[in-house]
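#struct-pred
JK: can someone run the complex with zinc ion? inputs below
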Amino acid sequence: MDYYSSQITKLIEELSKLPGVGNKSAQRLAFHIINMPKEQVECLAGAITSAKANIRYCMECYTLTDQELCPICSSDKRDHKIIMVVENTRDLAAYERTGKYEGVYHVLHGAISPMLGIGPSDIRLKELMLRLQRDVQEVIIATNSSLEGETTAMYISKLVKPTGIRVSRIASGVPVGGDLEYIDEVTLLRALEGRVEL
Ligand code: ZN
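RT: done, structure tokens with the ligand placed:
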């Protein structure tokens, strides 16, 4: 069964643990890596290890960063009174690609899902509520339009409303269940501009 040397098999095995990488792709990647110049392989391996060692959560918005504060939270060009709540760092990146959003973010790292046993305390909601004790004008809820995303949106709006801070939800132009990161910038921008107050 082991046509390759055990080292190659090990590499294929590790690669196939990555999301979206099946056994065939893992083999292709493994042989590609083996044929790469040594420096390039070291560069790749180094980037992986140092990313893992140095990346942490921004102490303000909880996105992934290598500083205490991410570049968005530490920028004085951003409007810190507008907070867009997203499920994950990839969603944040999708909105950043539009280049039109001037507020800051809050990354929940998940969504409420009673079916999967993920409750409000399993995502970064407490941290969001703490931020709202400061001068905030609007919370834009940009969780996905999946069942979990909608449940989370409703939950957040109920929490935020009593504070008197404006709460809005991005327009439902975003395909149901669609991961925000796969949606083009125009659609995202439309969803953002067409947001409705809850
Ligand atoms: Zn941040």
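RT: quick notes.
The beta strands are 56-57, 64-65, 79-86, 103-107, 138-141, 166-169, 196-197.
The first strand starts at residue 56 and ends at 57.
JK: thanks, will look after standup
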